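Here is the promised in-class demo. Please do not try to memorize the tokens; focus on the logic of going from shape to residues.
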């Protein structure tokens, strides 16, 4: 067993980083007082700080959760108009107007998040663009409310306790204080259940849902937080500049926010801040070119656009991504893992899973055609059949990715026929995929932690318990020392094992495995067999297994069900089934044959 990675050294490492962070934050907040800044510099910094807060929202929704948002300028506008109109027209105080703006924006963000229920990718982009355009139209045309194109002027600054923040330096300090607090919040997020769940949605939404992440709720949460951050930035902006008009919040501004986050690196708040700073400074630098280069000034929008495109093509992770990969710290040795426990409790009913008359038709194709299967507690139940016989479709029906055309599914005596996949996971259903679906860009440990954190698990609350659980599951599949690697960097066989570890980490009472041996060499297959037998014999886990390798199936399974053209053609012990003439005939008709 490897010695504990000097945990103290590790703590010191992160503590040192945190200390540097805190010092930098204090320095930033005090910056307006430490140097003599020109009014121009003050206003640039105020713009950078308030935009930066809005861009942090983009980090959450785009960088973490992988959802496109082309309406961040509208959310920025909600905060700005709320403060502007609240303080000048409705006699509200700055803070209450800001809170109101955040609430309105958060609600609008949640509604936008809801539309992601069925829509993703291009459609989501279109919807957010429309939302942004509607905001713009309303701001310009609803003159009675928004003052139209004239905008709102004379917006006052707030006071903070005894301090009046009408002085530019004091107000800039406040903006920086909010900025660094929000950076800290956004930087901490990926180390929480919510943040990890967001990243899993970005990496593989389908797998996230099946592993137990309530993906819709996570996306709504991400949009809500993004909108709230946008409106905080906007509210501070309005009071900072004392004047706003609709063109501060139009589609161009939304694109600017998007460019900032992509340029700096969407997956980190530090990237967001770097991108914001650069894109606010860039036009100024270009404007201050020497005479001979003045022609650039005329083209600065073109150059700006080109630079952004080039950077996105050659640095898809943004500037921060590039810096990070240069300074990646070496991982410490894996901590000593505890033994894996799986509560295969005896209260689990005798029949864990019951499929009755289950069918799935795709148009005229009867992929699964009225099958009945009972999976009994503590058994390895194999589902075999030629290619295209409906095995994967059956698994997709069981875990809820498909709605059956007819028939029912009972899991531990409850009807789950219409239950969402993440709720089935919450009841103790785990699964792996025929074509591996890991959260590729995340570490092996994070992958397994997402499996471990499914709701309804018997794990203590808190990050420490989740870490321990994930290390135990990883040790169980024999990959302890790989915990810090990026999932996609692992060899194929190891990725299969990580997928199994991810599902057993969540204390499943039923494990669904879709061709776990596909692509493994003989040694790896042998290890897989041992693993499956350990899961059943030592832990009492119930497993429904699909595999093509008949020798493997024969060695591990207690019961085999054979499908052909979506129908069950045989069922029984390996000895009975494998010499059944109907089964042999079905396989002879298939190229793969019984191998
Ligand atoms: P197996 O896993 O046994 O090889 P599948 O369950 O993947 O087979 O597929 C069964 C049949 O259903 C195949 O003919 C396949 O083409 C079809 N099928 C599977 N999924 C879909 C889908 N989403 N849409 C249309 N046809 C599908
Ligand atoms: Mg299949």
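The designed amino acids, position by position:
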């Amino acid at each position: 067993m490897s010695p504990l990675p000097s945990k103290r050294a590790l703590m010191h490492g992160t503590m040192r980083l945190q200390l540097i962070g805190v010092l930098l934050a204090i320095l930033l907040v005090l910056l307006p007082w430490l140097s003599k800044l020109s009014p121009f510099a003050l206003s640039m910094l105020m713009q950078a700080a308030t935009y930066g807060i809005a861009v942090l929202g983009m980090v959450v929704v785009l960088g973490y959760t992988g959802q496109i948002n082309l309406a961040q300028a509208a959310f920025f506008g909600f905060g700005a108009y709320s403060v502007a109109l609240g303080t000048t027209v409705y006699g509200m105080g700055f803070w209450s107007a800001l809170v109101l703006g955040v609430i309105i924006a958060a609600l609008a963000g949640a509604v936008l998040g809801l539309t992601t229920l069925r829509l993703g990718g291009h459609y989501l982009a279109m919807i957010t663009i429309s939302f942004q355009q509607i905001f713009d139209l309303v701001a310009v045309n609803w003159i009675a409310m928004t003052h139209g194109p004239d905008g709102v002027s004379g917006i006052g600054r707030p006071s903070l306790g005894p301090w009046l923040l009408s002085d530019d330096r004091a107000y800039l300090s406040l903006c920086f204080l909010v900025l660094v607090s929000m950076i800290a919040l956004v930087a901490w997020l990926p180390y929480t259940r919510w943040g990890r769940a967001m990243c899993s949605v970005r990496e593989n939404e389908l797998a996230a849902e099946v592993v137990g992440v309530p993906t819709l709720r996570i996306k709504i949460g991400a949009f809500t937080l993004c909108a709230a951050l946008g409106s905080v930035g906007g509210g501070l902006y309005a009071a900072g500049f004392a004047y706003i008009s609709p063109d501060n919040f139009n589609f161009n501004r939304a694109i600017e926010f998007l460019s900032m986050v992509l340029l700096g690196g969407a997956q980190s708040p530090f990237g967001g801040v770097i991108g914001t700073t650069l894109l606010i400074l860039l036009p100024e630098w270009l404007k201050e070119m020497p005479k001979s280069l003045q022609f650039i000034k005329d083209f600065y929008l073109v150059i700006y656009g080109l630079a952004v495109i080039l950077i996105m093509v050659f640095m898809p992770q943004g500037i921060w991504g590039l810096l990070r990969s240069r300074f990646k710290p070496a991982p410490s040795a894996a901590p000593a893992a505890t033994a894996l426990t799986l509560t295969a409790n005896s209260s689990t009913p005798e029949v864990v899973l019951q499929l009755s008359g289950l069918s799935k038709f795709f148009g005229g194709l009867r992929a699964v055609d009225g099958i009945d299967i009972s999976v009994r507690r503590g058994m390895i139940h194999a589902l075999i059949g030629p290619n295209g016989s409906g095995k994967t479709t059956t698994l997709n029906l069981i875990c809820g990715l498909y709605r059956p055309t007819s028939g029912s599914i009972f899991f531990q005596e409850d009807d789950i026929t219409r239950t969402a996949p993440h709720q089935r996971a919450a009841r103790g259903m785990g699964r792996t995929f025929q074509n591996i679906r890991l959260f590729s860009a995340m570490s092996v440990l994070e992958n397994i932690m997402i499996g471990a954190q499914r709701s309804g698990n018997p794990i203590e609350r808190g990050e420490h318990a989740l870490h321990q659980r994930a290390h135990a599951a990883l040790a169980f599949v024999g990959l302890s020392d790989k915990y810090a690697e990026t999932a996609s960097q692992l060899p194929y066989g190891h990725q299969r094992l990580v997928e199994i570890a991810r599902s057993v980490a969540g204390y499943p009472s039923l494990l669904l495995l879709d061709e776990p041996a596909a692509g493994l060499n003989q040694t790896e297959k042998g290890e897989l067999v041992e693993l499956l037998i350990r899961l059943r014999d030592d832990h009492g886990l119930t497993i429904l297994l699909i595999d093509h390798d008949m020798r493997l199936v024969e060695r591990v399974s207690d019961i085999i069900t054979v499908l052909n053209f979506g129908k069950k053609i045989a069922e029984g012990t390996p000895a009975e089934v494998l010499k059944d003439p109907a089964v042999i005939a079905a396989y002879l008709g298939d190229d793969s044959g019984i191998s």
